[in-house]
Amino acid sequence: MSKKPNVKKISVLSILSAITVIVAFIPLKTLGLEITFTMIPVAVGAILYGPSGGAILGGVFGLVSFLQCLGYSPFGAALLSINPFYTFIVCVPTRILAGFLAGVIYNLLKKGLKSDAPALLVSSLAAPVFNTLFFMSSLTLLFYKTDYLQSYVNALGAANPITFILMFVGINGLVEIVCGFVVAFPCAKALSKYLKL
Hints:
By secondary structure, the chain is mainly alpha-helical.
């Protein structure tokens, strides 16, 4: 006997996928920074539907990010021209893994607790932190020795790959992590209660 599809789950993940795509194309540009909120729906999906929800939405984010390398993102286009396969690795699996692990963390932390608040808080923070960590680690591992990334290394005056990551992420990454955490937590809490999950 085939298992009936969970219509509610499919509907919510479809809406969160659409939000992910829209948010990816409207970054907030302020004070010389470009801040994206794309990890917010990924974190919410990971909290609502665990590792599978996080991985699906992380995959949507990653695919959109990779497609933006076809001309929408000058940085991504430069990486694509150097090595399309490495660019795919930097964009897609990193986001899938970030969403998946945020869901794993939520499921592990909510077990045996009367309140889901600690699990919500940690998972909301984990999603953008993992995204930044995996993206920057794979970018540095795969592209650090290229002339293109070395131009950034020299411009920042970074002495080594770790310094480069910290300087490259800088305020922009911290703002994305904090905003993602601040917005994802109440959204996931409200939706979880509304959907009775």
